[in-house]
From TrEMBL:
Sites of 4-aspartylphosphate modification: D869
Species, as recorded: Solibacillus silvestris (strain StLB046)
Coiled coil: 261-292
Protein name per the record: histidine kinase
CDD domains: HAMP, HATPase_EvgS-ArcB-TorS-like, HisKA
Length: 938
């Protein structure tokens, strides 16, 4: 069915549309007229301004061209430069073009007259004046040129220049006038625009007033009537019902609607009252159910805590929170008697501590008898916010253990609300539950203390203990077992299967098959005895660990419940046994070998007639072997004295440099070995027992020679490190395996390889050396690489704990230049004197008393100079060494200094290019001064 659209005599929509279109048309006409007028005015002003500007620019260009014409003319007159003349003609052409443009523009009468004069002048100047002037210049007739210039040709020029200046001024005035007229026009347009907008706003205001009267006011009345209806009031809208437009229809409909709503409201109000009553009843039931559910959840959580928790502090905290929530305490405190741990609510910290520390003895006794009681106190109104007095109810209850002793106390207060009998009964029930929970915690703590005590006892034993069930699972082990066998299961929270731990033993043990068999047999139920076995564990880069394990069965009554394995580290005992065996073998070998030689050569001497030469050889051999036996016995005696603390050390101030040089001089060295002593120290004075240090040096140098069976170079280097003197002895021998280095300083310890067994030895040398260095408050260590060689180091404290003043500066200078000097001298005292002087100046000293070894070192080491003594013993001449050095390419340029008691030989000095010849005795300072000069000349 088509919708019926009512018709109105006065349609609001049509009225509003007509008003809107009237405003739009009026506004469009006014704005369009204003825009057209403004645009026409602006275009006219812009056109005038552009014409003035263009004419001004053209006059300026003509002025510049005019000036340039006469400037080029004067240039030509002065210098007869054809180029200037050509430029002059070009400028005249430019000026004529600009003049033509000027003539084409709208001109005033004055401008028109100027145009004709300039046009006439430029024609006259081009055709008459300029040709005459050019001819005068070419004829060098400057007098005629001046007359031509004064004849009136310049008047037109000056007139034009004056005009351009005045024209510029006039143009500026015209522009300013034009600008002022523009401003006046803008002001007029602004006033006109404001006037038009005022008219538009007045019209819009009139229209809006009609809209408000015809539309807004009736709507406001309807709104007021609606609000009044909503609040139950009445507003008369009869005048609106009489309107013949949409608002009249709306007012009539609103009136009818209000009457209908009032009738239905009465019915709905009655129904709503019934529903509200039902809702209140349901809301009360819901709140009661939610409260019961909340209490039930809290009770379940409390039961869970009481059943499973093992933390007493958490137990009293959860119990306190539950009771406070259920029984609505205003303030409360619950604390443990033994530990003093507490939880409180509504109490200051100071109040809590006071209640705990100063609880009355009578109340404690009453709690032990009654368990729960309530005290009622009257509170004065003056001390509280309340205007009247009221009662406080203090609840005291407790948790007792099985012996009826207090475990925890609960104190709670409710202001103005007493505790009912049911509440007290429920609270007692909760406290009884808590007592059971505490008994369970006490039992657990007692069991845990016993377990920890047993574990502590087991862990304190040095033997590794491992308890295995009859099913092969590890149930218990101690810390010692971790250290012995590197057990991977650091914490046993559960049983470790047999396959897993047996696999570990099979992995680490050298005798893996035998050990696994032993462990499996001990686990089976039929095994009831005690068995023992030894096995070893190989460690990466370290000596193996030797372990003895014994197994014994554990019974509960007659039933076997498992097997106890006890692992004992017997590495020390094993090594002692091995050392004893090695000692017996070594001593037997080291004693029997020289004794066999002594007995054999002695029997030969007694049994046969032997030539004197052979007798002497036999006796020397007997003496050498007897001395070897004596040294061996002395080593044993020294070790015995050191271990018993009977070794006496006589500490004196000695020079380590002199001591090393003396030892080297008395050392018997075979031709295969070359010993080089490099002294880099600046202070080598130490406090030491000279005899023991000599013994130390003989041991260490002897080892370097002995363990370099193929010969090679042995370097003894001495230098200062901090407040010590450090000596290193480096060989090129067979070296030492890295795994054997940590145990080399033990007594009777020898590296077990075929090369060293051939060399022999007791293994006491390094142990004695370490003891000697230790007694001197020094340190000893070694570095070695098998097959490459060994370097052993030892340090001794300096006598006065300081080094020479210039040590740092000298060390820096050494790094900049080579300061190594070789001294070849058989007199040890003089060599020491020269060495000390040169070291004080920062030189490094290499000392030799053998010409052959000195030559071998000199051709290999960069030297700053060589000091040579000419007389070096029987059949040893220093000049031979000088000649050999000068003939070798590496040493022919090294400065050589002769230090001799013989008279100076000028012939040999010139022949071998000797730098200096010092005749003994001479001041050592002269030698150091000369060598310093060599360093500077490098």
């Amino acid at each position: 069915m088509p919708r019926l659209i009512p018709t109105f005599k006065k349609n609001i929509r049509n009225q509003f549309v007509r008003m809107l279109w009237s405003i739009i048309i009026l506004f469009t006409i006014i704005v369009g007229a204003f825009f057209i007028y403004t645009n026409v005015t602006n275009e006219r002003l812009i056109s005038e301004r552009e014409a003035i500007s263009e004419k001004e620019q053209l006059v300026q260009k003509m002025n510049e061209s005019f000036n340039d014409i006469f400037f080029r003319a004067r240039g030509y007159y002065a210098f007869k430069d054809k180029n200037e003349l050509n430029i002059l003609y070009d400028q005249m052409s430019v000026f004529e073009m600009e003049l033509q443009k000027f003539g084409e523009m709208p001109l005033s009468s004055e401008e028109n007259l100027l145009y004709e004069e300039l046009n006439q002048f430029i024609v006259t100047y081009r055709n008459e004046i300029l040709p005459k002037a050019v001819s005068y210049v070419e004829a060098d007739n400057y007098e005629a040129l001046r007359d031509l210039s004064n004849s009136g040709a310049n008047e037109s020029v000056n007139s034009f220049i004056a005009y351009t200046k005045s024209y510029t001024t006039e143009t500026d005035m015209v522009v300013n006038d034009h600008f002022n007229r523009t401003l006046d026009q803008i002001k007029f347009l602004t006033v006109l625009c404001i006037f038009l907008f005022i008219i538009v706003f007045i019209i819009i205001g009139i229209i809006l007033k009609r809209v408000i009267q015809n539309l807004i006011s009736p709507i406001e009345k309807l709104t007021t009537a609606t609000d009044a209806f909503a609040t139950g009031d009445y507003v008369d809208i009869t005048p609106l019902k009489n309107k013949e437009d949409e608002l009249g229809v709306l007012a009539t409909s609103f009136y009818n609607m209000t009457r209908s709503i009032q009738e239905k409201e009465e019915v709905l109000t009655t129904q709503n009252e019934e529903l509200m009553a039902q809702q209140d009843e349901l809301q009360g039931n819901q709140e009661q159910l939610q409260q019961s559910l909340s209490h039930l959840q809290q009770y379940n959580e409390l039961n869970h805590v009481l059943t499973f928790t093992l933390d007493k502090e958490k137990l009293i905290e959860d119990l306190h929170n539950y009771l406070r929530s259920i029984y609505e305490f205003d303030s409360s405190l619950m604390y443990l008697i033994d530990s003093g741990e507490f939880v409180s609510k509504g109490l200051a910290k100071e109040t809590t501590e006071r209640l705990i520390k100063h609880l009355e003895i009578d109340k404690i006794a009453r709690l032990e008898e009654e368990k729960t009681f309530v005290i009622c106190r009257e509170v004065k109104s003056a001390s509280n916010i309340a205007n009247t007095t009221y009662n406080d109810y203090d609840l005291y209850t407790c948790i007792l253990n099985s012996e009826k002793k207090l475990v925890a106390i609960l104190m709670a207060t409710r202001e103005g609300r007493s505790f009912s009998s049911k509440e007290l009964t429920d609270i007692n029930g909760h406290m009884n539950q808590a007592s059971i929970a505490f008994e369970r915690i006490f039992m657990y703590e007692e069991v845990e203390r016993s377990r920890k005590l047993n574990q502590t006892i087991i862990d304190t034993t040095n033997e590794g203990i491992q308890f295995v069930s009859k099913y092969g699972e590890v149930l218990l082990l101690n810390k010692a077992l971790f250290n012995i066998i590197r057990y991977p299961f650091e914490e046993i929270d559960d049983k470790v299967p047999q396959q897993l731990w047996l696999k570990h033993f099979q992995k680490i043990a050298e005798e893996s098959d035998e050990l696994v068999y032993f462990l499996k047999i001990a686990i089976i139920e039929e095994f009831t005895n005690t068995r023992t076995m030894r096995y070893s564990i190989q460690q990466d880069g370290r000596s193996p660990v030797f372990v003895e394990v014994y197994a014994t069965s554990v019974f509960e009554g007659d039933e076997k419940v498992g097997t106890m394995f006890v692992h004992r580290d017997i590495t020390s005992e094993y090594e002692v046994d091995m050392m004893k065996s090695e000692l017996v073998s070594t001593v037997s070998h080291e004693l029997r070998t020289p004794l066999s030689s002594v007995l054999g050569f002695t029997e030969l001497l007694l049994a046969k007639e032997i030539k004197p030469e052979r007798q002497k050889k036999y006796i020397e051999t007997i003496h050498k072997e007897a001395k070897r036996l004596t040294n061996l016995i002395n080593d044993f005696l020294d070790i015995q004295r050191i271990e018993s603390g009977q070794q006496v050390y006589s500490m004196n101030k000695i020079s380590l440099t002199a001591l090393i040089e003396d030892v080297l001089k008395n050392f018997q060295i075979d031709p295969q070995h070359n010993i080089r002593f490099v002294d880099e120290s600046t202070n080598a004075i130490v406090s030491a027992d000279e005899e023991r240090i000599i013994q130390l040096l003989f041991n260490l140098i002897g080892n370097a020679i002995k363990f370099s069976p193929n010969g090679g170079e042995i370097i003894i280097r001495m230098q200062n490190i901090n407040e010590t003197v450090q000596v290193s002895i480096q060989d090129c021998g067979i070296g030492i395996p890295e795994s054997a280095i940590p145990s080399l300083f033990q007594k009777f310890k020898r590296v077990d390889n075929s090369s060293r067994r051939k060399i022999g030895g007791t293994g006491l040398g390094l142990a004695l050396s370490k003891e000697i260095i230790s007694k001197h408050k020094g340190d000893i260590w070694l570095e070695s690489e098998e097959g490459i060689g060994t370097t052993i180091f030892f340090t001794l404290p300096l006598y006065d704990q300081e080094i020479v003043e210039n040590r740092n500066e000298l060390t820096e200078e050494k790094t900049i230049s080579n300061r190594t000097v070789m001294i070849v001298e058989d007199d040890l005292s003089l060599a020491l004197l020269l060495s000390e002087e040169l070291k004080s100046k920062g030189f490094t000293i290499i000392y030799h008393d053998d010409l052959k070894r000195a030559y071998d070192d000199a051709i290999q080491i960069p030297l700053v100079g060589i000091v040579i003594d000419l007389i070096m013993g029987e059949n040893m001449d220093g000049w031979d060494l000088v000649e050999a050095l000068r003939n070798h390419k590496n040493t022919k340029e090294i400065p050589i200094i002769i230090s001799s008691a013989l008279d100076k030989s000028s012939v040999n000095m010139d022949k071998y290019n000797v730098e200096e010849y010092f005749t003994k005795p001479y001041p050592p300072e002269e030698l150091s001064t000369l060598l310093l000069k060599f360093v500077k000349d490098q």
